[in-house]
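ok trying this again, last paste got cut off
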Amino acid sequence: MSENVLVIGSGGREHALCWKLAESPLVKRVVCAPGSVGISSTKDNVESVELDVKDFPALATWCKDNSIDLVVVGPEDPLANGIVDALQAKGIKCFGPTRAGAQIEANKDWAKKFMQKYQIPTARYKSFTDADAAKEFIRSAPYSALVVKASGLAAGKGVVVASSKQEACQAVDEILTEAKYGAAGEVVVVEELLEGEEVSVLAFTDGETVSMMPPAQDHKRIGDGDTGPNTGGMGAYCPCPLITPEQLADVKDQVLQRAVDGLKAEGIKYVGVLYAGLMVTKAGPMTLEFNCRFGDPETQVLMMLLETDLYRIMKACALGTLKEVQVKWNTGMSAVGVVIASKGYPETSTKGCVISGLSQVSKDEDIVVFHSGVARGANDSLVTAGGRVLLVAAKRASLRTAASSATNAAASIDFPGAQYRKDIARRAFSKINGLSYLESGVDIDAAANLVRLIEPIATATHRRGVLGRLGCFSGLFQLSAMDSHLADPVLVQGTDGVGTKVKIAEIMQKYDTIGQDLVAMCVNDILCAGAEPFAFLDYMACGRLQLTVSATIVKGIADACILSGCALLGGETAEMPTMYEIGKYDLAGFAVGVVDNLKQLPRTKEIRGGDVVLALPSTGVHSNGYSLVQKIMAETGHSFHEKAPFSKTNRTFGEEFLEPTGIYVKALLPAVKKGLIKGLAHITGGGLLENIPRILPPRIKVKLDATKFTINPIFGWLQAKGRVSDFEMLRTFNCGVGMVVIVDPVCVNELLCLVEDTIAVVGTVEVIGKEGGHQVVVENFKEAMAPLTAPYASSEGVTKKSLSYKDSGVDIEAGDSLVSLIKPLARSTSRSGVLGGLGGFGGCFQLKAIEQEYKDPVLVLAADGVGTKLKIAQRINKHDTIGVDLVAMCVNDILCNGAAPLTFLDYFACGALDVSVAKSVVAGVADGCKQSSAALIGGETAEMPGMYEAGVYDIAGFALGVVERTHILPKINDITVGDIIIGLPSNGVHSNGFSLIHSLMKKAGLALNDKAPFSEEGLTLGEELIKPTRIYVKSVLPALQRGAVKAVAHVTGGGLLHNIPRVIPESVRARLNAHWWNVHPVFAWIADAGAVKDDEMLRTFNCGIGMVLIVSPENQAEVMNITRSHGAMVIGTMQARPAGGARVVVDNFASALDFTRRMPLLTIKRVAVLVSGSGSNLQALIDTTRDSSQCMCAEITLVVSNKKDAYALQRAEKAGIPSLVFNFKEYGSREEFDRAISSALEAHRIDVVCLAGYMRILSSEFVQKWKGRLINIHPSLLPKHPGLHAQRQCLAAGDRESGCTVHFVDEGMDTGPIITQEKVPVLKDDTEQSLSERILQAEHRAYPRALRNVATGRVRLGSRGDIMWHS
């Protein structure tokens, strides 16, 4: 420990170097010149000395006198001025390049030529000394020449990345003409603007060897979200994951080593740090610039991770022996540094402010505070002494934790005017251990593969009338393709599942027949209404999508559809990893049939005593009673893999119990159509005793003789082994009868001849006498069962007690109770066309009720669920809105085909039925139905013990709608380049992506009762996440029915990236701008809490847009007029799609998320509207500022008029907004009048003034006073047609388009800088009035958009009177 080191500099970078050098066992003393208070207090062996570091001879003498072994130069200025040359000439070793080497930073023109010469990848450029030539190049360059650099040293601030050519030209003037950077700006370099992420890669070098440091990222802009002016750097983090290891290897070889070798070839031995500022583009890393020294603030975070002795590295560089040193970094940790700057920075700095809170921060050994601009004040206090005052650096195991620790530490340090960024490292969060939907257990690609796999299977089921294919939002069926003899068609709809039979399929790993069960349970039900089934949809829920299993199930469904004459039109596959274990499934189905109203069954009024009862046999247990089956199997110790003693074909128990449900459509439909049948009863849950009464009139009963129908031996085994009573058998199982038929005696023979399948007379219909009694009597059941139970009647292997369905966990009485409770809810949704009520086999809708509205109606069918959002409802015990989600997911889908919802059915599956919970869910369904004008006409409640844990349930929904064939959407062939994309806001997450949310909550240790950090209402996470999916029927349907929309996309699973492509042709792409809508705060929280990548966000969540409409420019105004009150906004356009290019491009999503994060920090701007007339633009501003989904950050707090009878004053009064009227006649001059208004505006603390049809010429004094805060709207595309009668001028000029312009106001006539414009096409037959009306509607869209930009700070008026944009 004998070496002495001199560090040149005084900032945070030098503090970090001194701190690290002082740790070296080789170093005795570290001296910093001129140093700082903070540096002096680093360690005992560190001190600051006052030296004139510009006096190189004196400095060399001092080094000799003080036995300095190594001089480390921090800043770039001494290096560029030749400090190393001077010291080395005196034999003093230095860490830093010579003056010639420092050119690589000090002379950007030289550096660019050097990079070109040695083929170092960099942006295209040109250098200038003449401002006019530079500006002409900017305007005419074949690339975006928007990066303007002062060639010399400008303290890290001489680079302007312009957002427009105008801003770039302004930067040229500032550097060359105004000499903003003095001699450093004598040459200006104009570069190509590269797109990507900026990354800093530094390296130690001895002139031969390059030892690369971990990549870091600096944050140059002063404000969060990279807003505001450039600075020397507001924070940094390391390692930076935005560059891959492969790219880093290229940087080392093609940038750093190539530069060192090139310098050597130029005769320059470069020693020290070589800093490459890179842009990681799609084409790979490109060099933006080189620096000849350590970066600030990168150095501070790099030193936190350096494990090797810094002095040893530097000495090796100076001696040329770097290759002998193995430099190690702790890249398993992350370091984040947050700069705290003084008030006014970067334009000015505030000195002398007392700093507090440092002692509190110093308690954490992994948090270090580096001093950049600190001095000693009175009473030994520390005070600010520069722009950048401190940097708080934290080292942690994860980047997110390090960022949080550094930001929190910065928050605990205080001084007047302190400012710091709260988003350092945020851009990298998506790359560090980011969650994805796939990692959460949901594989979107697998679902897409399944659709491709099953599409030909479904297509094979199609029949005449089917339109479209799988993969669309809904299934379509043209009614005119049905029987032309249907005079008064009635649609009959049924839904059902297969109960716990699916558990046996899972046990046996045999799924090929379970699909037939699903179809049979539905089509047999609608057959009972006399209907011919023609369409089917399925819902499949699972823990993980297994393609083979799923395809097998769908193949079974398709085969059964063919058997029953149904077309498989679509369905929903729900992968729910936190609700179902892997390998577990549940199924629900939805069938639709049609019958002439006069031929509906049952003909209850015609059923009378003396009618004959016939039965078609069941194939086995069918799909009901399986909870009791499994209870018996478990209690008797049998395995489903054992051979079944009752099997006639030597099959196992599992194979026998999986015998598929019989389908009776083909057997009975001819007799139904011929009118031979009075009633049909499908024997399902409830058995013979509860299903037959559903078709009987009061005071009528059916008497069956059990010896007349064949009872399958399987029922004998079940009764014997489970000691099940006769009554329980008859109300749980079908007991050999699959379908009961009631006919008039005179029709029996004809029926028997017509039905080709097995059918037998099994009983009669009788009148119930005065003595009363049950509606179903089964005689001789005990006698019929005796020979079937006898083989198994021994006490061995029999249950200890008589088992019932209730013993197995199914409570039929509870189910009946629920039906009685929800009948009023269903009735409350009824609409014209609904026939009957709940309790029948199917729900019925009479099409005559809507026939006046449709010439060629097409039915649109959709199925969906709500995924693992259910877990939120179940965990917070709030079930009243989840039904709204269910309806929304279905009816929003059918909107995508242009259809109006008509009816809805729900499926509710649970382990144990909680009647109050189920009622609450159905109440939500009813609410959703009312919101969408759909009638709740039926459903299914499935109690499945063993499949769902206590308190857990799943739900599925099925919606049916209708659309005129000529209005079917999407009109894919009509969609073209230039079409407008309109978005309607979501209500939050809606019902997709919840598996990822569950994963991030688990990973972050969050609970649903935690306060939601993004909630504006102070709600918990559970309360925020449970908010229901928005239903878009009333907001969108009117536009669809006018034929003004080309396509609609419901943004569900797959997000914007996967749903929009479903409705657009391959030749175009949707280009969206995320700045044009409000990204709901919940999505910023998800992105941050789960470190979710932007692309993953966009393909998993709706990200603030729940529904997308594509319209032609000609129809934009009409559609926006209809939908604006529902929050609609233009969010993009259709473009030509490059070959192989993305089908959806979302610009500015990252910065839109940043804006959302900043929203809570923004102050609400107080806005005054000056108006002279009706105030329609005032109304548009009032409506949007009061719509929280618009994120306006503004409120209208004052209305001012120069006319006391202006209708706008009534609008203000109605809205509760104060108003003032100023009469010009009461003032001596225009200036005096304007001063009075200005004083009123100031008294009301107005921030922004909007002119809305204000028919006064403003005085220059007023305009100057409110400059940058005064905006106006004009009815033309300025600069064309300023002044009055703009529409008349437009028509006279023969323009093909007009529109409106919102601009800042200056002293000229409509000459102020433009904020936004909206185009309106000029139509062939337009008059001045018709064009004016359409432009006015465009104004109602453009003005709020412009106000939002101004109020949120996205746009402002620059000091030179030009527009400044901040993303």
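PB: full thing came through this time. The chain has a mean pLDDT of 91.
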